[in-house]
Amino acid sequence: MIKLIQLLKRKSGLTQEEFLQYWEEIHGPLAAKMIPKLRKYVHNYPIRISKGGESPIDGVAELWFNDLESWRESVNWYRSAEGEVIREDEDKFIDKSKLVVFVAEEKVVK
Fold this sequence. Notes:
Strand order of the largest sheet: 2-3-1-4
Number of helices: 3
Number of domains: 1
Helix content: 25-40%
CATH topology: Alpha-Beta Plaits
Shape: globular
Largest sheet: 4 strands, antiparallel
Distance between the termini: 16 Å
Radius of gyration: 14 Å
Number of strands: 4
Structural class: alpha+beta
């Protein structure tokens, strides 16, 4: 199993609540429907556990693929004209200058 993991920060001018609502109600369903070879798509939302400052990220996305070839096909699609719908939608709520992305292979410890 291959995961694309994204650490997301909201665009300036959006509250965290607005960011999370857009991600859950608009972008999430769009991405889940359109991204090819996507096996599983998970949103991780922050939980405030103290009265400290604001979190450096507003959410973590996990996009799961069966293998590297499936992930590569998805990346090629994302970069294509067809993937422009997703890219443009991301621009509405994600600060891409603060986006952290990495590809991982899950190793279950417990």
